[in-house]
């Protein structure tokens, strides 16, 4: 399968998206955390999908790791992106992978060398440990390759569900949902859904977001990037730019005065 980098597939019709998701299942999951009948909200959301992906195509963020499906690059980048700005990772991206092009190359390096490459991101010691353990996992248990396994990807220190699921989606083209603060905030605002504390740790939230993600990998990729970029650029906390939002017509959120 060939992907259209950086985002995946950004041209879609309402009928195409509607045919790849189950609107009733989405509404059933939403009913557990909303008041009123969620079905009309789901229908309204479905009809915004073409303009949502048009927005991504014209306004989404473009980073070097969005131009590859190389598992090591994707996996290591997700660790680099933890608790730091994406622009900061972009600044060191090429230099990092020139120095550590494979798990084996990083595992053979000493901690000081790794730390020097990533210290500008902050949390250098913790990040060094996570990267080293990720490389050791690949080399010692998977013959130098990154495993396409959700549990295995979370074995290294401080590598959680988000990083592991992102690796499966962006490297192995598995249509799996991601949940972070941006995505949780958009779902909460658009559908009037009451998010639990720490939504990224709740199975119910993953199950809900899963229903919004199509089985087509290139669409799963683009819709996920659309959510991530919308949350970072438009649907921000605390003051979203609602007048610029491609989901404005289907969103229930009203900014407090």
Properties at a glance:
metal ion binding; 55% helix; Endonuclease III, domain 1; 257 residues; single chain; Endonuclease Iii, domain 2; mainly alpha; 13 helices
| The CATH superfamily title of the largest domain | Helix-hairpin-Helix base-excision DNA repair enzymes (C-terminal)
Q: So, CATH architecture of the largest domain?
A: Orthogonal Bundle
How would you sum up the major sheet?
Answer: none
Question: Class of the largest domain, according to the CATH hierarchy?
Answer: Mainly Alpha
The rough form would be described as: elongated
Low-pLDDT runs of 5+ residues are none
GO biological process, one term: mismatch repair
InterPro entries: DNA_glycosylase, HhH-GPD_domain, HhH_base_excis_C, MIG/MutY
Family: Belongs to the Nth/MutY family.
GO molecular function: 8-oxo-7,8-dihydroguanine DNA N-glycosylase activity; adenine/guanine mispair binding; iron-sulfur cluster binding; metal ion binding; oxidized purine DNA binding; purine-specific mismatch base pair DNA N-glycosylase activity
Your description of this structure?
By secondary structure, this protein is mainly α. It folds into two domains: 14-62 and 175-250, Orthogonal Bundle (Endonuclease Iii, domain 2); 70-170, Endonuclease III, domain 1 (Orthogonal Bundle). It is built from 13 helices and no strands. Helix 2 (23-31) packs across helix 3 (39-59) and helix 7 (111-118) packs across helix 8. The protein is elongated, with a radius of gyration of 19 Å. The termini are far apart.
Topology (SSEs and partners):
Blueprint: H1 14-18, H2 23-31, H3 39-59, H4 71-80, H5 86-99, H6 103-107, H7 111-118, H8 124-141, H9 150-153, H10 161-170, H11 181-191, H12 203-212, H13 217-233
Helix pairs in contact: 2-3, 2-12, 3-13, 4-8, 4-10, 7-8, 11-13
Keywords: DNA damage, DNA repair, Glycosidase, Hydrolase, Iron, Iron-sulfur, Metal-binding
GO molecular function: 8-oxo-7,8-dihydroguanine DNA N-glycosylase activity; adenine/guanine mispair binding; iron-sulfur cluster binding; metal ion binding; oxidized purine DNA binding; purine-specific mismatch base pair DNA N-glycosylase activity
Family: Belongs to the Nth/MutY family.
């Amino acid at each position: 399968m060939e992907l259209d980098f950086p985002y995946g597939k950004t041209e879609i019709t309402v009928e195409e998206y509607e045919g790849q998701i189950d609107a009733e299942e989405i509404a059933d999951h939403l009913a557990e955390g909303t008041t009123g009948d969620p079905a009309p909200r789901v229908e309204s959301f479905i009809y915004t999908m073409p303009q949502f992906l048009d927005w991504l195509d014209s306004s989404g963020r473009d980073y070097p790791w969005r131009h590859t499906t190389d598992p090591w690059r994707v996996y290591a980048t997700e660790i680099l992106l933890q608790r730091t700005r994406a622009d900061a990772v972009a600044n060191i991206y090429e230099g990092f992978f020139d120095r550590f092009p494979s798990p084996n190359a990083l595992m053979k390096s000493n901690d000081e060398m790794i730390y020097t490459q990533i210290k500008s991101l902050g949390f250098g010691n913790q990040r060094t440990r996570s990267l080293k353990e990720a490389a050791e996992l690949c080399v010692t248990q998977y013959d130098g390759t990154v495993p396409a396994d959700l549990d295995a990807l979370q074995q290294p220190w401080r590598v959680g569900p988000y990083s592991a699921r992102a690796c499966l989606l962006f490297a192995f083209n598995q249509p799996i949902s991601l949940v972070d603060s941006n995505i949780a905030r958009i779902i909460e605002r658009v559908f009037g859904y009451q998010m639990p504390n720490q939504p990224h740790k709740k199975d119910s939230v993953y199950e809900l977001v899963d229903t919004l993600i199509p089985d087509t990998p290139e669409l799963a990729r683009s819709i996920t990037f659309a959510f991530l970029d919308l949350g970072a650029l438009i649907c921000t906390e605390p003051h979203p730019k609602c007048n610029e939002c491609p989901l404005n017509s289907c969103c229930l959120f009203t900014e407090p005065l």
